[in-house]
Structure formats: C-alpha cells, structure tokens
Amino acid sequence: MSTGTRADGVFTLKERLDIAGAEALRDAILGADGDLTVDAGSVSLLTTPGLQVLMAGRDHLAAKGHALRIAPVSSGFHACLRTLGVPLERLQTGEAPA
Amino acid sequence: MRVLAIDDSRTIRDMVRITLEREGIETTLAEDGLQGLAVLESLDPRPDAILTDVNMPRLDGFGFIERVRQRAEYAGIPILVLTTESARDLKLKARAAGATGWIVKPFDPARLVGALRTVTGLV
C-alpha cells in the first residue's frame, strides 16, 4: 500500500488536516511498520477527523511497539490544538518538539 | 465482547475498529443506520453493545436507535452515541430515542473502551 510515507518514516501533512487529510494520515498509520514521524510544519487547519486519527493512531502504533512523533509543528497546528483542548503530548509517544 | 459500530466516515470506522480490536473486542462495522439495522439482524450472537454516529445518510443515528428500540429482542443492548455533536438538546433527543450514553468525538481510545465495559458489564 502506498501511504505517502518516506523511507525514513516521515509522513508530511498538507496544509489542511481535514477529512481528506485524515484519510491519508489514516493510511500512513495503518500502513506503518515502524516508528512514524508526522511532519505538521505546514498545517494551518486541524479538524476533528484528523485529531481522531492522531489520538487512535498513537495508541495503535504503541500497541505494535512503534512510536508516533509529531515534528515539526506549525503555529497553526498548535493553535488548533489549543482550541480543541488537546495537548500535543497526548498525540505522540515521543517527546514534544521544542 | 462484541460491538456493532456505525459511522458514515470510513476513517472514523477504521479508528473505532483498531481501538476496539486491540482490546480483543470483536467489531462489526456499518456505514449508516439502514445498513446498521441489516447487519444487526444478521449477527448471531447479537452484539453486546452498539456504537452509532448521529449524522448519517439514509437513516441517521436517532432513527436507527428508535428502530432498534422498537424490537423487543434488542431491548437489552446498550447503545452509545458517538458524535461530534455535544449540544444538550441533542443529548436529550438521543436519550428519548433510547440511547444509553453519549461519547463526543474525537474520542479518547481508553475512555471509549472503558465506556463500553461500563455499559456492558464485560471486561
């Protein structure tokens, strides 16, 4: 399955992590066979489906012994998380980027 | 535990499935209320609980719950509403239709599993 994940385990989110973006992220997470880093450096919009995939995906990967990290993180992504009331740490198994 | 989960979003269905199956919960999926009714009738044994979205094409979550509650054989199955909606009047409408509880999306995986265990009494 082609998931858009690079060989080094990095999946880059597009500007909008909406329902369409969530589908691509879902495929990346379900297809991951190792640690996954999600590059959220360009995200300006994060909606509920995307957040849901990150929340469930983190636990899914952890159960398989894999880490989920989100880095880099854009200011827009941080702002959406604040609005939705979810800390970045809740979405990843690695340390939050500075 | 066996759960029937109904949501028109494939992404959400997949997230529910991986969350529940990781906990050893047998999960059957449906895309809307009508398909949910058909799947429910086909399940033997019947599910221990049902998760349903509200806003779906063809038959929404309220309609699905009302139809299920009209059937005596399904009266004892807990139904949790899983939706982005959190307005009080919608919760009351779900309760009136026969819902057991309400979980707001995005759901916390551990809380979803915990809620299912609570309403079913199964570990």
Based on the model shown, name its key terms.
heterodimer; A: 98 residues; alpha/beta; 3-stranded parallel β-sheet; two-stranded parallel ribbon; 3 helices; 5 strands; globular; B: 123 residues; 5-stranded parallel β-sheet; 5 helices; 44% helix
Radius of gyration of chain A: 12 Å
Overall geometry of chain A? globular
Helicity range of the residues of chain A? 25-40%
Strand fraction of chain A: 15-25%
From the spread of the alpha carbons, the general shape of chain B counts as: globular
Average pLDDT reading of chain A: 92
Structural class of chain B: alpha/beta
What's a quick, concise take on this entry?
Chain A is an alpha/beta fold. Chain A has three helices and five strands.
Overview of the molecule:
The complex is a heterodimer of chains A (98) and B (123). The termini of chain A are far apart. In chain A, 40% of the residues lie in helices and 18% in strands. Chain A is of the alpha/beta class and 98 residues long. The radius of gyration of chain A is 12 Å and the shape is globular. The mean pLDDT of chain A is 92. In chain A, the strands form two sheets. A three-stranded parallel β-sheet of chain A has the order 1-3-5. Chain A has a two-stranded parallel sheet with strand order 2-4. In chain B, helix 2 packs parallel to helix 3. In chain B, 44% of the residues lie in helices and 19% in strands. In chain B, helix 3 links the parallel strand 3 and strand 4. Chain B starts with a strand and ends with a helix. The model of chain B has no long low-confidence stretch (mean pLDDT 95). Chain B has a five-stranded parallel β-sheet with strand order 2-1-3-4-5, with helices on both faces.
